[in-house]
Design a protein that fits this description.
This protein is mainly beta. The chain has a domain at 10-61. Helix content is 0%, strand content 28%. It has no helices and five strands. A five-stranded antiparallel sheet has the order 4-3-2-1-5, with no helix packed on it. Strand 2 (24-29) and strand 3 (38-43) form a beta hairpin. The chain starts with 9 loop residues before the first strand and ends in a 26-residue tail after the last strand. 11% of the residues are buried.
């Protein structure tokens, strides 16, 4: 079983549930454990991470961020807050 998406590639949900959706960065290709390849991904805006099956995502196209802006272990997201620290 081969993976379609590479580490560092941007993907989006294949069937988004709402009008606007997050772009996800593939952090890791997971070992085969089911009938299709799986990935550990992290949202570029939300910072939330999850595991998805290959059929649940598609390539983001031209909206790929540069890999230099993210570390492969985890994205460094600063919480946005209206209050200064």
């Amino acid at each position: 079983m081969t993976h379609k998406y590479k580490v560092g590639q941007s993907v989006v949900p294949a069937s988004p549930q709402r009008g606007s959706y997050d772009t996800y960065l593939v952090l890791k290709q997971l070992p085969p454990t089911s009938y299709e390849p799986q990935y550990w991904v992290q949202g570029m805006r939300s910072g939330m991470d999850c595991i998805v099956c290959e059929s649940q995502v598609k390539a983001a196209g031209d909206r790929q961020p540069s890999l230099a802006s993210a570390s492969l272990g985890a994205l460094k997201i600063r919480p946005q807050s209206g209050k200064p620290s």
